[in-house]
Amino acid sequence: xxxxxxxxxxxxxxxxxxxxxxxxxxxxxxxxxxxxxxxxxxxxxxxxxxxxxxxxxxxxxxxxxxxxxxxxxxxxxxxxxxxxxxxxxxxxxxxxxxxxxxxxxxxxxx
Amino acid sequence: xxxxxxxxxxxxxxxxxxxxxxxxxxxxxxxxxxxxxxxxxxxxxxxxxxxxxxxxxxxxxxxxxxxxxxxxxxxxxxxxxxxxxxxxxxxxxxxxxxxxxxxxxxxxxxxxxxxx
Lengths: 110, 116
Description:
The complex is a heterodimer of chains A (110) and B (116).
Chain A: E1 4-6, E2 9-13, E3 18-23, E4 30-36, E5 43-49, E6 54-57, E7 60-65, E8 70-75, E9 84-91, E10 98-100, E11 104-109
Chain B: E1 4-7, E2 10-13, E3 19-25, E4 32-38, E5 44-51, E6 57-58, E7 67-73, E8 76-81, E9 90-97, E10 105-107, E11 111-115
Parallel strand pairs in B: 2-11
Antiparallel strand pairs in B: 1-3, 3-8, 4-5, 4-9, 5-6, 7-8, 9-10, 9-11
């Protein structure tokens, strides 16, 4: 079953923050976050494994609440390069197949 | 991160012909690769899981006789769209797991297929 992402779209000005949520009705082993620009393949951002860990690099971080079967992606001090469609992919096992959410379109304006 | 390539990046073919798309993991060995299809402004839909040395596992609703998958080596998987029709036009993307991390999947650049 496809995870649900919210919001569907968000528009920011450079320097503003955003949060993208991903919820699943199934128990999760892992949550993967990707960013896709128009006409290109998705680019891996980070993976969060079962255990409620939080990860981040530079100004993008994420959390995973396995009890709530939810993950959130945090974008702080957004840059123009952050624009794109963000997908969460949920997995039942390590190295297993992923089921992707419907995507969240993020647009950052100068 | 790991590098995955796809060839060709774009292909236009006539209805009724077959098209082969290659997916290669360039700097790591991938026992498992995944094939996705993506329509404009939509999410990635998993078509099948390609396993090296064995038959692919297809998702429900995907015709295995139409979308032939071969995973001949640890670095190469191919998807052949047989007897293509205009409704097969789409963006096909492969991904490979493994490499340096645990659980990450790295995507190829995708293949834009247009069937006329």
